[in-house]
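Re: that chain you flagged

S.,

Sorry for the slow reply, it's been a week of failed gels. I finally had a moment to sit down with the sequence you sent. For the record, here it is as I used it:
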Amino acid sequence: MLVIVPRLVAGLLNDSDLPPLGPEIWADTRIVLPPGNNFEAYRNALTGEDVSPQSGGDKTTIDVAKILAEFPAALLLRGYPISELRPARPFPAVPGPVLQSG
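Prediction finished late last night. Pasting the structure tokens below so you have them in one place:
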């Protein structure tokens, strides 16, 4: 299982009230998986999305812009060959935060 929760993102948001989602924020950011990772796919339990790691050289990585495209955190369950993944009901897209001034 991988839990992905960004922190200290205020500098990435440029004073925006929107959550840190998608390639505009994460560009080419990648998470390097531990050596020996031989899983074909992960399932994001929060969105229902299937995520396939990419191998390049001696590293296996996951694209953060793709993982955090719809929700600002991810819970990736591993160990599912792509052929065995069942469809999940994804959560609806998350709107920007509701801010109240006091």
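What I noticed first: The longest strand covers residues 59-63.

Talk soon,
D.
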